[in-house]
């Protein structure tokens, strides 16, 4: 399924869930969402043997992508809009090494593991998780008992609970987030 098709399905799923209601009210009132500035701090280098300086600061390279932790709380859909503004999307995670890397950049960003948004969602169809960047959802690190869809939770957060694993949360919750883009 192409990126355009996934984006259309995701937009429809989020619209049905009510994720855009606050934004619609902002537009009707003649105001708009103000995106936070790009993070000013630079991560320490190198983060690990797979990290190089091939990305502009404060982005960090891992494999063929650049990642950045944004320590500003936004709803999932607004976090995705922020990432798009910088030519990226909310991060997808495809193996234990990427998962560890993404958790480490959230730790560096605020001196502790923060619960943060990444690009996973099942808003299109409950239980059918996909990445917003259209890559394969081929790895998971769910906390025990997750995802549980408690009260219609459709967006993926990391660094949750004692295991610092993955959790499904309400997309309207405001959290910091991780963006990623191809080099």
From TrEMBL:
InterPro entries for this protein: C-type_lectin-like (IPR001304), C-type_lectin-like/link_sf (IPR016186), C-type_lectin/snaclec_domain (IPR050111), C-type_lectin_CS (IPR018378), CTDL_fold (IPR016187)
Signal peptide span: 1-19
Keywords: Disulfide bond, Signal
Residue stretches making up the C-type lectin domain: 62-180
Protein name: C-type lectin domain-containing protein
UniProt lineage: Eukaryota, Metazoa, Chordata, Craniata, Vertebrata
Gene behind this protein: LOC114909279
């Amino acid at each position: 399924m192409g990126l355009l098709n996934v984006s259309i399905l995701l937009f429809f799923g989020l619209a049905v869930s009510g994720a855009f209601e606050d934004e619609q009210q902002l537009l009707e009132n003649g105001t708009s969402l103000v995106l936070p500035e790009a993070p000013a701090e630079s991560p320490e280098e190198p983060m690990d043997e797979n990290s190089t300086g091939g990305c502009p600061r404060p982005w960090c390279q891992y494999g063929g992508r650049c990642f950045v932790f944004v320590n500003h709380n936004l709803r999932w859909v607004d976090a995705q809009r922020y990432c798009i503004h910088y030519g990226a999307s909310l991060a997808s995670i495809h193996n234990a090494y990427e998962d560890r890397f993404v958790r480490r950049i959230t730790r560096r960003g605020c001196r502790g593991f923060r619960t943060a948004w990444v690009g996973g969602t099942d808003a299109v169809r409950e239980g059918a998780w996909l990445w917003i960047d259209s890559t394969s959802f081929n790895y998971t690190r769910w906390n025990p008992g997750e995802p549980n869809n408690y009260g219609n939770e459709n967006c993926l957060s990391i660094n949750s609970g004692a295991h610092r694993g993955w959790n499904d949360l309400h997309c309207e919750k405001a959290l910091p987030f991780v963006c990623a883009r191809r080099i």
